[in-house]
Design a protein that fits this description.
This protein has 18 helices and 16 strands. By secondary structure, the protein is α/β, with parallel strands linked by helices. Strand 12, helix 10 and strand 13 form a beta-alpha-beta unit.
Length: 516
């Protein structure tokens, strides 16, 4: 069985993104949760991240700093690599497009495309955004017209470039993008269908004024266009340790990607250009391309001019990993735009994690320790119908279905629903009143066991979403999770061991304070 191959957009280094912004962190956390889930489900996973280091804007930034482009990239790549480690991202491969292995793959791929007679020399004229590394429409045909994304003036380009025959693959691309599961969500799919229906145009794959790039074999002064080069990072990452026949090793080592998670602004490159390039090279196309939305703050687009850019490093330092993960995963439907609201963030963390889940575990563990000699009580099984067991079974089934379909917000809400139902069960049964009558002892044991068992399953379901919080829940229940036993088998009701010791409870997460 081939590994599950998960890739998200390789970070495009530039003058402005000298470290991951909140949008990058969001995508990475989503991918990390999926990678963790797939591993827990018993699948081998290749989870790649990395940096795209070539292009005009890198070259200019390095020149402005008075250093070599490679030195600039070494510095920024290390920042990204360390940042993902700070966020506890479980990536398997970190690709740098300035690596020698990546250059091997690009050259081998280019030779395949060339052999398909899909490369020719032409002249590229048009308005170019250096920030996007892309030609743009300029309705005013004016040198003061700004890129809508970067708000920088477009630059006129008129140069000899090598072109890729994208137009040749019109019918193949139409067929691929109309497949039910290739592009998600449906809004993004419709945008691409509309774009392709206007007719595909060949695009340039080389530049003559950019020295910081991979040289095109056989053409002096030509380097590969940054997108032709960068997209291949997904392939070269698989064989990053190879010294020869790298492309072949990538093809047999895990390609094609099961899913690309990318921002909706670069969907065209991934859902149109990339599949055509792969077909030309006689390679398989990715199984799915998922275009996620953008993040705003308090309803406004984030930007330096507005002074409202939210630094993820500050969020991590102030609140920790899991609160940020929970908000981004649970509160944003993957594929839609999301809005980061400070008060809503604090309210959600306090209500969901500190109160509904944390307090449930803390008070139930305290009751069990007080009444049953610091241990889990016997599972008396005296109730004819176990409500919590039914709730747990439904939650697990829905959670798995949602995770398999990349509906992580719904998966997270299933965990929360189980915690809410468990709280209701505890409050409805009021074991603190029942315990006063000796005859009620078997029933109290049953109630406390059921609640603790439900929190065990809640903890397991949180493992791909909030690994740190999940570990704390497991420790509070006596470290009962076993890595050597399949995770899904441990989601079966009734595995909490009666009479096992319960450690003294401590809060698994502290409440956050809202600062105006």
């Amino acid at each position: 069985m081939s590994p599950f191959f998960l890739a998200f957009s390789i970070a495009l280094l530039n003058a402005f993104n000298d470290k991951p912004h909140l949008g990058s962190v969001y995508t990475t956390i989503i991918c990390d949760s999926i990678a963790r889930y797939k591993r827990l489900a018993g699948e081998e996973v290749i989870f790649i991240t990395g940096v795209d280091e070539h292009g005009l804007k890198i070259q200019r930034t390095a020149n402005e700093k008075g250093i070599a482009p490679k030195s600039h990239c070494d510095e920024i790549s290390e920042v990204f690599n360390n940042n993902w480690k700070d966020w506890n991202i479980s990536f398997d491969k970190f690709i740098r497009t300035s690596s020698k292995n990546h250059e091997f793959v690009v050259n081998e791929f280019y030779e395949r495309v060339k052999a398909s007679d899909d490369i020719y020399m032409g002249v590229q004229k048009g308005w170019y955004c250096v920030g996007c590394e892309e030609f743009k429409d300029n309705p005013e045909n004016s040198s003061t017209y700004k890129c809508p994304i970067h708000q920088k003036n477009l630059e006129w380009k008129n140069e000899e470039n090598l072109f890729f025959r994208l137009s040749k693959y019109q019918k193949e691309i139409e067929k691929i993008i109309n497949e039910p599961s290739f592009i998600e969500p449906i809004e993004r799919k419709n945008e691409i269908i509309n774009f392709v229906s206007r007719g595909l145009k060949d695009f340039s794959i080389s530049r003559t004024n950019v020295s910081w790039g991979i040289p095109v074999p056989g053409y002096d002064n030509h380097t590969f266009y940054v997108w032709f080069d960068a997209l291949l990072g997904y392939v070269s990452a698989i064989s990053s340790d190879a010294t020869e026949h790298s492309l072949e090793k990538s093809i047999y080592g895990g390609w094609p990607a099961d899913v690309h998670f990318i921002g909706k602004d670069i969907l065209r490159f991934h859902a149109v250009y990339w599949p055509a390039m792969l077909i030309s090279a006689n390679m398989k196309v990715p199984k799915k391309v998922f275009g996620h939305g953008f993040l705003t703050r308090e309803g406004q687009k984030m930007g330096k001019s507005l002074g409202n850019v939210l630094d993820p490093d500050l969020l991590l330092t102030k609140y920790g990993n899991d609160p940020v993960r929970w908000y981004l995963i649970k509160d944003i439907s993957l594929g839609n735009d999301g809005d980061f609201q400070d008060k809503r963030f604090v309210d959600i963390i306090n209500n969901d994690l500190a109160n509904t889940i944390g307090n449930l575990l803390n008070r139930t563990s305290s009751m069990s320790r007080k009444w049953f000699d610091n241990k889990v009580p016997n599972n008396e099984k005296i109730l004819s119908e176990n409500k919590l067991e039914n709730f747990a079974k439904i939650a697990v089934e829905n959670y798995i279905n949602n995770f398999d379909n990349y509906k992580l917000d719904l998966a997270a809400n299933e965990v929360l629903s189980l915690a809410i139902n468990t709280n209701l069960y505890l409050n409805d049964n009021q074991p603190w009143l029942l315990i006063k009558e000796k005859d009620n002892l078997p029933l109290v044991k049953q109630i406390i066991y059921d609640v603790l068992e439900s929190t065990r399953i809640i903890g397991l379901l949180l493992l791909p979403l909030l690994p740190e919080l999940s570990t704390k829940i497991n420790e509070q229940l006596g470290s009962i999770y076993r890595e050597e036993i399949p995770w899904k088998k441990q989601l079966i009701w009734g595995l909490l061991v009666s009479n096992s010791s319960l450690p003294k409870p401590t809060p698994i997460i502290n409440k956050l304070e809202y600062e105006h």
